[in-house]
Amino acid sequence: MIRKKLDFGRIIIGIVLIGFAFLCLIPFYYILMVSFSDPALVKEGEVILFPKGFSTKAYEMIIRDQKFFRGFGVSVFRTVVGTALAMIVQCMFAYAVSRKHLAGRKWFMKLVIFAVLFNGGIIPTYLTICYTGIFDTIWALILPMAVNPWNTIILISFFSALPEGLEESAVIDGASDVKIFFKIAMPLSKPAIATIGLFTAVSHWNALMDAVIYINDSKLKPLQSYLIDLVMRSSTQEMFGSMAEQEIPTLSIQTAAIFASTLPILVVYPFVQKFFVKGVMIGAIKG
Amino acid sequence: MNQKKRRLYRNRYLFLMMLPALVLLIVYRYIPMAGLVIAFKKFSFAKGIFGSDWVGLDNFIFLFTKHPQFLQLVWNTLAINLLKLMFYFPVPVILALLLNELKSARLKKWIQTTIYLPHFVSWVVFGSIIIQFLMPSTGIVNAIIKMFGGEPIFFLAEPKYFRGIVVITEIIKSAGWGTILYLAALTSINPELYEAASIDGASRWQKMRFVTLPGISGTIVVLLLLEIGRMMDVGFEQIYVLANTQVYLVGDVLSTYIYRIGVGQAQFSITTAIGLFQSVVGLILIASANFTCKKLFDKNLW
């Protein structure tokens, strides 16, 4: 009797969790299903729950769309260069601040913490970007994101936890701070650097707000801006019925573009997963 | 004095390593803070941030007495955050408690992998899919409504549904990832407590209630306080993607308004005043959250 009751509870728990997991998967299922269905049937509104008539036409059209490619290129550039720059700059800073013999160490730490708690807000940051001459250039997407105070704090706490004996023996052997950083501290901190690096890369790839505010040049619009234009155009059309019929990107094209732009995330996801499961939990606080 | 100089000299490489980040931090984080002075000025591009004329508290007086939407914007921001606090906040706690009950490690890992995934997708992508789901002509939701003989509803153009949609999409996108801190806290619960509870004949629910929940209550309180500290802040991208002119009355929040009017119509001073108000209230909230945390647990939030 008691055993049966226990199993019942477990089944409910299982159902609730699996149900939520499916809820999370439905969006991905939906874009896959629609984008690979026959565009003609999608237009008729016949593809609602299950795929109909396999076709890669939508993807062929996306691949031929120059704007998509340009957006993809901008996103790849900002992600690769932005992440590399952010990691080098933040690691060097964090390592230096984590050294106990650094003069003014406490003050530098306070400078970073205060930047987490308080910020100038949208408009003053926008004006600063205008005055420093990077408005409407690719650097507007890279430089302001290069130092993330929160990630820097995590890196500082990580470097601080490195055993001091290693550094002391290196100093006795005549190594300089720079040498210790590259030869000892960096290799020892690979998991932390990889975790923060992956989070930084994901946020670069997904960022929309900075492109919306700092970029006007259509050649410099990243993929996320391209996507929102694509989707917004069709939803305003549905709402106001004002645009010409042939201009509307069909649902098939929209879903194909969405899937193509999410693919890089899906490819790196298993690695991200591996790293945060491995235990640099502190990086999780950020999300 | 000489000793101090020697110390600085010994640190020369460290200072050199700090320099690039320090410059970026000062230029893109601290100069904007100084730029907040334009909330007290009549900003003109030609005169620059520091050369523009002072107007004292005029911008703030205008905001609180004459500005047509300001109080509505503050309320929209608070309303969305309060709804999130009520309906979103408990979800990761419940999910973590349920995950903890799963015996099968494989199922647990599969569920974790799945529910973390939406967190890594951009709001543009996730929001676009939601928009398509809710379309009156082609969306799944309306297809189901039509199947049961109902009238299709254009959810995203109806003010009464908007805040609900914001909270529900937030739950699907972020609640799974939100479990990660609770799951981390769960690993630190002493397994002997469960054994002792079993020997005393505690049921699954009793163990959950009296062993697991107290084990993560510290984390719950800390995250709750942090959430309260962010009360004036709604994620810009979520609203930017989901909202449209039809629902601005309930869905327009401080950040989207600042962007639209500030960047879009170049009304820099008044929007900076709104931003400053938002930041200062945020700072006060987080400082009081920290104070509460110190009183409760004798430690800082950060």
TrEMBL record, chain A:
Membrane-crossing residue ranges in chain numbering: 12-32, 76-95, 107-126, 138-159, 251-272
GO cellular component: plasma membrane
Keywords: Cell membrane, Membrane, Transmembrane, Transmembrane helix, Transport
Statement: the UniProt record of this protein carries the keyword RNA-binding: no
Matching Pfam families: BPD_transp_1
Record-linked SUPFAM superfamilies: MetI-like
UniProt protein name: Putative aldouronate transport system permease protein
Membrane topology term: Multi-pass membrane protein
InterPro entries: MetI-like, MetI-like_sf
The organism's place on the tree of life at top rank: Bacteria
One GO term of the biological process aspect: transmembrane transport
Localization (cell): Cell membrane
Membership in a protein family: Belongs to the binding-protein-dependent transport system permease family.
Organism: Cuneatibacter caecimuris
Domain ABC transmembrane type-1 residue range list: 72-269
UniProtKB/TrEMBL annotation, chain B:
Annotated TM spans: 12-31, 78-99, 120-145, 165-189, 210-232, 238-259, 271-292
Domain of life, per lineage: Bacteria
Compartment list: Cell membrane
Gene3D superfamilies: MetI-like (1.10.3720.10)
Gene Ontology CC terms, in alphabetical order: plasma membrane
Key words of the record: Cell membrane, Membrane, Transmembrane, Transmembrane helix, Transport
Pfam families recorded: BPD_transp_1 (PF00528)
Biological process according to GO: transmembrane transport
Residue ranges occupied by any ABC transmembrane type-1 domain in the UniProt entry: 74-289
Membrane topology: Multi-pass membrane protein
PANTHER family: BLL4140 PROTEIN
Family (UniProt): Belongs to the binding-protein-dependent transport system permease family.
Protein name per Swiss-Prot or TrEMBL: Carbohydrate ABC transporter membrane protein 1 (CUT1 family)
